[in-house]
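Entry for the shared binder. Reason: the reviewer on the internal report wants the predicted structure included alongside the sequence.
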Amino acid sequence: MTTTSFQLSRGKEIPFTFRDIAGPQQPPATPSEWFARRFPAEVKRWGCPFLEAVVEDVETGRKLVTAVSMNNSFFAAALSDSQLNHSVVFYEPDQEWFFLDPRDNFYHPTSEAKLMTLLSALLLRCAEEMPACVDRISLFVKFREDQRLKAVVKQARSVLAADSTFFSINSPHQRIEGPEQHGRMARQFVGRLIKPQAGQLLSIGDCYNGFEGYCRNNGVEPVARKAFKQLVVEIIKEEFEVGFRSDLKNAEGRYLRGWKGLTVDVDARN
């Protein structure tokens, strides 16, 4: 005779500093405990990784633990491991996935297929490390099916969502390529190369030439001249409280578009 019960077990919380060395000493007894130990912040926020069924033989006392239902929100959050600074985001404006590469500290594009592979590998590792009283088939087969992995990644679009401010020019987060890269370069250029100088006129053309050189010296392809004005006008106004004008007149009597009282420091290109 057997009895069946269901549980939501997180097991004993292991501090992050000791979680790797504590694993072999106190192995997790169930799949939920295995994941909860490795993703403590995610389990606190999103709940138990699995609903588990426990089938017990009344006569022998032997138990068989089977993961029967997956908490998609938890596994979606676990794709971005906060304890290891393994950051993954779904950038909503572009509907694209990015991961933080610690080698250069830039976010790089990734794909849903790679995220599915990551989750599949975690489930496989969990199955390998489970004791004999745990049903490994569900972990190895059922939860690693494409449709289940896709469901988790789809859920992750909202759990790991990042809005337009995530890669803005004022954000600490930077991706390897993106339109905001030129905004960052424009802000650096204004802060480092544009200087106040009484009586000077800075034309939009001279300003762009300085920006073009600054970009190339820093290994960045400059934005087109037509788009440059939109990038730099507000930054200069914010930095120097000087507005863009179309009625400037130089010493030769030529009208210019640009700024009064500013100049480009051509000796500070880097």
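Summary line for the report: Strands lie at 2-7, 50-57, 63-70, 88-91, 96-101, 106-110, 161-162, 194-203, 245-249, 255-264.
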